[in-house]
Each structure stands twice: as structure tokens, then as C-alpha cells.
């Protein structure tokens, strides 16, 4: 069967370097035995190494041409190909009550959305690794004080230990992207309860980063009860990228107490 033609609309850049594909597959070596979901396998360059390692693999691919290629060329996957949009997939129904891992060479144009989607199943997804645009990978891994730190950094780091593993150059793809790529790994931490209202925590993170050039004192005002003053805390003099997850939790509890009256 002929090679699959990369589709710009799907953000497809097919990895051609087998050594890098193997290194990405290696990121799940500590989780052999758990089900693995590969997002966007394309022509299976990563898939072949995941199968070689003996993972219990299911692949999710939205591109009909790629699905046909995989069925013809990688019969070892068998019926474990789901032709679907990963962002619309109910992962909880795929593996009811089971822990599992997610991996992929993620499409650049939806990589952030993929990680927001994975957060919905944080209690089941024990590891998530793979390759995405270097800038986005660095942002996810960015710690307090980094100018690249953002909403996704904080929300993911609340529940996962994030590692930036290595950088991948443009020339190992077809077609070559205009940017470098980065490989990261997220491993579920031991947090089961943030110690604050999780919905309000998310709102505080999104609201403050929505006005990231302002100090917390100014960006927090829309969330205050009518007539309430900004809580007294050294945190409100900072900007959102300076705060750790723990400090965002503290800020959320201060706001929660104000709202409770």
C-alpha cells in the first residue's frame, strides 16, 4: 500500500527517524502491563516499537487513510484501532475503572487541547508521554518564575510530575515542521485532593493567567464577592507565572473564605 500523504489540516508531520521513535516508546518502560493508548499513530512509526515492547496497545486515529494503512501493514494491532477524534473520545468508557497510559506524536495544532482532555481522566491516566511542539512542551514543564509558565503548566503540575526529556530537530519529519519538537513525560503524582475547591482552583488559574501582565491583586478582582476587598497576602503582589501550585491552592482558599463570608 502506498505511503500516507501528510494532511496539513490534521497537523500531520510524520516522524521518519526510527531511533527517535524508539526513544519515545522507551518513555513508557516503567508501565509495561498497563493498557496504552496511542494518539494519532499515522503510519505506525511509534506503534511498531510499542508493540515490540509488548504493550497492551489501542490506537486512536482520525485519518481514514492512516487507518487503512495500519490495517494493511500492521495486522498485529488487530481490532485495536479506533477511528475517532481523540478530543471527543470518552476514555473512561474505553477502560472502565482501569489505570492506563497515553502516548503519541501529537498533532501540533491540537496538542494543548489533548492535554486538557487527558486532565479529565487524571485519576486513570498514570503516565502521559510523547512529542509535541517544543514551545508547548517547555510551557507544560515550566516551573514558577518562568515567563513561559501558563494555565496548562499549573493545572497539569497539580496532578503530575512533568519532565522535559529531549529536543527533536525539524529534519526528521515528513514534511519538516517549521519548529523544533520536544518530548515530555507526565507521571501521576500522589495527590488525590488538592486541599481546595478544584473548580475554583481552575477558575483562579485561568482568570489570573488571562491577565498575566497584571499582578494577582488586579486580576483577581472579578472573582471577588460584591464589596469585598482583595485578601491580604504577599501572593497578591505577584504575577501568576511566579506562583507555585501550592501558592495557587493557598490563593484559592483565601478567595473561598471570602466567598463564604
The top-level CATH class of the largest domain is: Alpha Beta
Q: What name does the CATH topology of the largest domain carry?
A: Rossmann fold
Which of globular, elongated, flat, extended, rod-shaped describes the shape? Answer: elongated
Total DSSP E strands: 9
In CATH terms, the superfamily of the largest domain is Vaccinia Virus protein VP39
> How many separate domains make up the residues?
2
- What is the CATH architecture annotation of the largest domain? 3-Layer(aba) Sandwich
The proportion of residues forming helix, as a percent range, comes to 25-40%
Q: Overview of this structure, please?
A:
The chain is an alpha/beta fold. It has two domains: 8-188, Rossmann fold (3-Layer(aba) Sandwich), CATH 3.40.50.150; 198-260, Orthogonal Bundle (Helicase, Ruva Protein, domain 3). 33% of the residues lie in helices and 19% in strands. The chain contains ten helices and nine strands. The chain has a seven-stranded mixed beta sheet, sandwiched between helices. A two-stranded antiparallel sheet has the order 1-8. Helix 3 (64-73) links the parallel strand 3 and strand 4 (81-83). Helix 8 (198-210) crosses helix 10 (245-260). The chain is elongated.
